[in-house]
Amino acid sequence: MDKKNLSLSDVPQELIDEVTKQFEANGTVRRLRFEQQNATRNHDFVRALVLGRKIDALFKEAVFNVLKEADKADRVLFMSNLGLTSDDEESLMKLIMVLFMCSDFIESAVMNIDETLHKYDANVYFEAFDDIRQLSKLSKAKLARLRQLSNYLNNPAWGDGCDNMYNMLLNKAGALLRKLDKDDVK
């Protein structure tokens, strides 16, 4: 992937939002922003402009790194160039599909947790899942990328299959909790 051809339109909005959030939380970027604000307050506009360009270059580099990672993922999806046997290719595609399904499950579970908590207080979040919320955003971006690269996610069978598997997971989790509660009573 060539940096000269870098385009934000190549990146799903969810991923840009996540990269921006992580970028702005970076200590170096915060320090540069602070210096830029001070330069502007002190009417040192040339320094403020130079710092702004440096920040922009760092952001472009961060986005480029994300695109580079997406490009690596794209190459993995096109395994037929590796000369794999049809059994190995089928096995790998199943495993990749499991990863994408798990991403969908994570997104659904986080949304359902939030919906339940927000019934009682719109500002309450289950903080133990903050890292999973970030993972969910990245998973959603990967699903968007798969939608661009293939027809899998555009097929209604994908949604139906994921919904069925998610409901099965919920049922299995309920059965496991009941068993654990029953074992605790003994």
Structural overview:
This protein has 186 residues and is mostly helical. Helices cover 77% and strands 0% of the residues. It contains six helices and no strands. It has helices at residues 13-25, 27-41, 45-77, 86-118, 130-149, 156-185. Helix 1 crosses helix 3 (45-77), helix 1 runs antiparallel to helix 5 and helix 2 packs antiparallel against helix 3. It starts with 12 loop residues before the first helix and ends with a helix. The relative contact order is 0.09. Mean pLDDT is 77; it is low at 1-6.
Helices and strands in order:
Elements lengths: L12 H13 L1 H15 L3 H33 L8 H33 L11 H20 L6 H30 L1
Helix content: over 70%
Distance between the termini: 61 Å
Pairing-aware structural class of the strands and helices?
A: mainly alpha
Shape from CA axes? flat
Question: What ranges have pLDDT less than 50 throughout 5 or more consecutive residues?
Answer: 1-6
Number of strands: 0
Series of H and E elements: HHHHHH
**Major β-sheet profile:** none
Radius of gyration: 22 Å
Question: Quick summary of this structure?
Answer:
The chain is mainly α and 186 residues long. It contains six helices and no strands.
Structural key phrases:
186 residues, mainly alpha, disordered N terminus, 6 helices
